Amino acid sequence: MNWTVSPGGVPRGTLRVPGDKSISHRSVMLGSLAEGVTDVTGFLDGEDCLCTMKAFQAMGVRIERLGDTRLRVHGVGLRGLKAVGGALDLGNSGTSMRLMSGLMAAQNFGTVMVGDASLSRRPMRRVIEPLTRMGAHIDSNDGKAPLHLHPVDRLCGIEHVSAVASAQVKSCVLLAGLYAQGDTTVIEPEASRDHTERMLQAFGVRLQVAPGRVRIHDGQVLHGTAIPVPADISSAAFFMLAAALVPGSDLILQDVGINPTRTGVIDILRAMGASIEMSDERTFGGEPVADLRVRGQGLRGVAVDPTLVASAIDEFPAVFVAAACAEGETLVTGAEELRVKESDRIQSMVDGLVALGIEAVATPDGARIRGGQFRSGQIDSHGDHRVAMSFAMGALRAKGDIRIADVANVSTSFPGFARLATQAGLRIRL
Ligand code: S3P
């Protein structure tokens, strides 16, 4: 599937983007492991989260869909999951595979997890290694999916010093820690998103949390609860970008999750000159949310602060497009993790920028981008949802139509994107 996006729209109005992907995955996982019922509202019914939901249903968890975005999860307790006949297919979803590795490695039955071509290229050693030290038995295809997780009687707690700031690695090890004998500690170089810690606490699990360090105690039980899911800041980021790109735009984005481990994109866009105001700050469960008002007033290039990388990790495709439309040069450093996302996001983005006439050079850990104006042309999203959505927004400032190839995977994180973008003023057609 392809899109053609024409320039000229002025983003305006009030929208609510779909639910947070990270929190939606975790609501199904922790709800399934809890004792009792968990009611989820604002669930993201994107392909990735549906892979997680189907996997737990296949393992015997009753999950009722009370509407597109409402789920009732009938928890089976930590030892209530059942073996499945075949492999669990986790599609394009790295979060499903990495977090579930921690759970499935701890069961007394075996599991095979597979994914699509993109997921099968992504590094899994970062979870296999700590889990193996905890006593898990995992076979892989040279550190990549498919993963074969063999049955074990019990895992043991470890202290894991992660080389990367990765919430997926941290969450995997913490979830395995629920099944381990003794405490499990994860230490990371920068604080990654902390949704697992917040949600475990909402389910009644005791944790010790300090900056860059979290410990989970053994022998705990999760209790079903209500999980209201905020709108996903990673999806809102495309609309922040759209409004920031066009002078005269004025967009309000409702109920956006503003967990401080996720707000790097707001800091980066503000440093580039965007006007982003927050109002009505409140909490949804243990997660802070606010309404965001974004108005366009021109952008300037910056050296992106590398300490913001972890808290903006999924938003760099949007930042690259902002840089391409800014006055002057933008430098991104310290972001080598972008190379192992759904695509190599440094290369996919730089290739797309260059194809549209922007001066951009990829570096091992980022890029150097000189602002200009997009010319009409075609880009390949490499099956990467966030690359596709970022270039769609970039078309607002192009000289002519931009055609974006291979956009089907947008449904992994943002079902209804084209409709919402049209509502906001974009000229996008299939
Ligand atoms: C996620 C963590 C991030 C992010 C991904 C979702 C999560 O990955 O890129 O989209 O839900 O834990 P890493 O933790 O590997 O950086």
Kindly describe this structure.
This protein has 430 residues and is of the alpha/beta class. The chain has two domains: 3-19 and 230-429, UDP-n-acetylglucosamine1-carboxyvinyl-transferase, Chain; 21-228, UDP-n-acetylglucosamine1-carboxyvinyl-transferase, Chain (Alpha-beta prism), CATH 3.65.10. The protein is built from twelve helices and 25 strands. The chain has helices spanning 21-33, 47-58, 94-104, 125-133, 167-177, 195-202, 233-245, 264-271, 316-324, 345-355, 385-394, 417-423, and strands at 2-6, 12-15, 35-41, 62-67, 70-76, 88-89, 111-114, 138-139, 147-149, 155-156, 159-161, 180-181, 184-187, 207-210, 213-216, 226-228, 250-257, 275-284, 287-295, 329-332, 359-363, 366-370, 377-380, 402-405, 427-429. It has a four-stranded mixed beta sheet. α11 links the parallel β23 (377-380) and β24 (402-405). The longest helix is centred in the first third of the chain and has 13 residues, at 21-33. The chain is globular, with a radius of gyration of 21 Å. The model has no long low-confidence stretch (mean pLDDT 97). Bound molecules: shikimate-3-phosphate. Shikimate-3-phosphate binds at residues 22, 95, 166-168, 171, 192-193, 313-314, 337. Shikimate-3-phosphate is lined by residues 22, 95, 166-168, 171, 192-193, 313-314, 337.
